[in-house]
Protein: glycine dehydrogenase (aminomethyl-transferring)
Organism: Acidithrix ferrooxidans
Amino acid sequence: MTKEVYGAASGGRASSIPLMGGDSEPTIFEISVSGRRCGAIRDSGIESVDASDHLPLAYLRSEPVALPEVSERDLVGHFTRLTHRQYSVDLGAYPLGSCTMKYNPKLADTVAGMSGISGVHPHLPSSHSQGWLEIALEIESYLKEITGMAGATLSPAAGAQGELTGLLMMKAYHLDRGNHKTKILIPDSAHGTNPASVSLAGYSVVTVPSNEKGLVDLELLKSLVGDDVAGIMLTNPNTVGLFEEDIAEIAKAIHDVDGLLYYDGANLNAIVGIARPGDMGFDIVHSNLHKTFATPHGGGGPGSGPVAVAEKLLDFLPGPYPVRGHDGIKWTTPSKSIGRVHSFYGNAVVYARALAFMKALGGEGLRQMSQIAVLNANYLKAMISSYYPPAYEATCMHEFVVSTAALKKSFGIRALDIAKGLLDKGFHAPTVYFPLIVDEALMIEPTETESRQTLDAMAEALIELAKDALDEDAASKMAGGPRRTPVTRVDEARAARTLITTVDAHSK
Ligand SMILES: *Cc1c(COP(=O)(O)O)cnc(C)c1O
């Protein structure tokens, strides 16, 4: 038994499992050996329960579910090999613009894993979970301070859900005031989730074109503002990494028609401790704790996208949320609440991590985080700008956009080829082809966690790639890259259109 549980020495496919760098890793089903187990469950002595006595026949399986049968050794080996085939924030620089893939300090994981935090059941009554509720109130207070808002909800599980939550509050606000509004303005550089959330909330999108400086065109914006405008979704610095200098006037134009300003603060990395959306005139701000405040993300979550609001929206916050009373912290729901947007109170362990990160850095440390993020982005931009012309000249904030359109003219090398080439040089690729308004865009966000040595190495790698693009032989090699990764160039269009994620796909 022990050997079956802990060891894989007993044959099976163990000897044929490739080591790191091999061509393929079998699926966990392929290394399954009948009877192998990952843990020995002790016999409780309690008589087993027959499910058919308790569940309707229609819901019972006719055969046991096909689960992989592996020992702990097989299991750990399998996932360790998979992690070796993957690029991650723990491995190196990950300059994915807009997404803020910074290194996540292990301290935050340690705190979130403490039994008093991770072992608390969400169904506990508030009298037995005062510690957790303190955590919630504390992070809320920091978020209010950072964004300049009056209240916040920690319910939303991601940025996109925060957007929808904020827009539903905006809608409830207008309905409450008897406003008839149908439109929301969004600049053409915005993140794709913005128009999607607007549609989900039942509004129509009006696109505001950017000017040649990459900023919202104020006069054009004013011409689009009317009584039917519910609000605007903006982010500042915007999605090309530039600060919207006319923000005060934009806010006035929107407020003049009783519209609201929504701040897409998915990425607050440029402004923490320096500028506050509330002071710029925004009414609703979501922030992605899994981006700015260093909790792991990518691959679909879990995340946390709290929404902070101005005084006039407090009554519409989703409920229930915790408030401090004279006899401890209790759950409450505001009078005009839009209702529940998530089970319990959001992804709690994610905001516990973010709180640990904030407390470890402290106020001054958080400001420095933003200062270094901005400095790093400008440094890298300057290092590569003679090979990669920036899409806009102005000093950037935490990220910048360059265009590789000129390289395309030489031997047809595209932004995608440069991104793939960077993988061969040991760095993760930046964001590509976003924002849509820049031709052959590379959007680079080095973040504050990379050292000057790393930035220099990244600049050198990018410059080598730009030089290769001008050499016919090197360019033709680059077009098929990456070559040094476990999976080389894939047909991305086909992968997106005929997505097959089942085991069967491997045998086809
Ligand atoms: C990441 C991001 C979002 C969406 O956040 P998710 O947590 O992925 O839903 C929205 N806006 C901007 C600017 C972003 O960078």
